[in-house]
Amino acid sequence: MPCVSAYFLQDFLTTPDGARLYFQVHGDGEPAVVMCDGIGCDGFAWKYLLPQMKQHHRVLRWHYRGHGNSGVPDDRDRIGFQYTADDLARVMDAAGIEKAIIFGHSMGVQVALEFHRRHPHRCLGLVLLCGSYGFPLDTVHDDTLLRRVFPAIRLLVELLPNASRKITSILMRTELALQIALRFELNAELLQRNDLVPYFDHLSRMDPVVFVRTLESLAEHTAWDHLPRIDVPTLIVGGEKDRFTPVWLSRRMAEAIPGSEFMIVPHGSHTAPLEQPELVGRRIDRFLKTRILRQPAGGQALESTG
Predict the structure, then answer these.
(1) Of 226, 213, 233, nearest to 84 (Cα)?
(2) Alpha carbon of 275 to those of 48, 182, 198, 201, 219: distances in Å?
(3) Which of 93, 162, 272, 298 is 20–30 Å from 266 (CA)?
(4) Alpha-carbon separation of residue 217 from 25, 72, 98, 293 (angstroms)
(5) Is the pTM of this model over 0.85?
(6) For residue range 250-281, what is the model confidence (pLDDT) as tens digits?
């Protein structure tokens, strides 16, 4: 029988530049697990993995600057991906976690990789779900269109922040936005509608200036040069039908990280952990048991679909 801990903590810490960061700790088992969100997210992707992980692990969830319950620094120019890895180290300190298995979904994959680059001694392993190792605007829908139009979008948001906030708030609360995502971007046959609603609810409340500044910094980041230096057990999960971070990115990442394991989620999109939670959960559980709790010698990347 699983040992389920009722332990729960939520708290804030304030960074040296004034950003008030929110975090939660669930469970009390070891080794600890840290969950890193995608951009514009406050935890919706972990709906099914969190209950599974907290049965046996202490699980840290947190919100980036300007995301969810976290605030922004005194200097609003200090928003973006370049601060995230060090913010994570501070959050882990506040939660009393020295080392952990770092989970990342979407942008969280780049967060996890950058965290390993800066704080390798604090990483016990990496679980990288539906994300890229870098320059994500260059590969959305296997096209550079978003890279080309983003500067104009960012400029418009920066020039008209109040109007952008009102428009975003209205649009993200419409049924149309939800249906477009389900019909054209995700797998509506596998994804439960109610599992996506929290994402749009959070976007409707998020400051669009924070969003575009975070995305701008993310767009210029890559960990490609660091992948061969990753020296901890790593599991990479890609969705077969992911249009935001096409699965070839996951495969290429797996080939570059020594001894990594690679899983393709059949018919999975960018929200594969929500679309096939049991399949993904079983694969992660097997990885943790065989590679983290009992670590064999490294080898070539291992690919599977379950």
Answers:
(1) 213
(2) 10, 12, 15, 19, 26
(3) 298
(4) 28, 15, 27, 35
(5) yes
(6) 999 999 999 999 999 999 999 999 999 999 99
At a CB cut-off of 8 Å and minimum separation 6, what does 86 contact? 118
Question: Is the distance from CB of 142 to CB of 246 less than 8 angstroms?
Answer: yes
Superfamily of segment(s) 8-304: Alpha/Beta hydrolase fold, catalytic domain (3.40.50.1820)
